[in-house]
Amino acid sequence: MSTPGSAPTATVDSMFYAVDHFHKRNFEKCAAICTELLAKNPYDKAAWTLKMRSLTSQLSVDDLEAEEEGIADSVLDTNTIATAARPGTSLKTAANVVENLCRILTILF
């Protein structure tokens, strides 16, 4: 085992230090320790998972710029709701057409 001030020597100690760095939000050091562990054993699922989590936690996406809407975008918005129905799509007229069709069919038959 390693002493508290020295570098980790055993795999368990290295994994412990990697998890400790992850909890302290020192993601770069955590990923570096996981990379060392994976160099020794590339099939270590715990090291892969911790490295993936530390690398994804490093990313910070700036959504402020993506959400900003300019004046031109708000004025020229094409997603508006029409106030009047399109011709031939009114339910009222469709009911009248069906009613008239039923009258014609009863007269013919």
UniProtKB/TrEMBL annotation:
Signal peptide: none annotated. GO terms for cellular component: BBSome; ciliary basal body; non-motile cilium. Coiled coil: none annotated. One of its GO terms (biological process) is non-motile cilium assembly. This is Tetratricopeptide repeat protein 8-like.
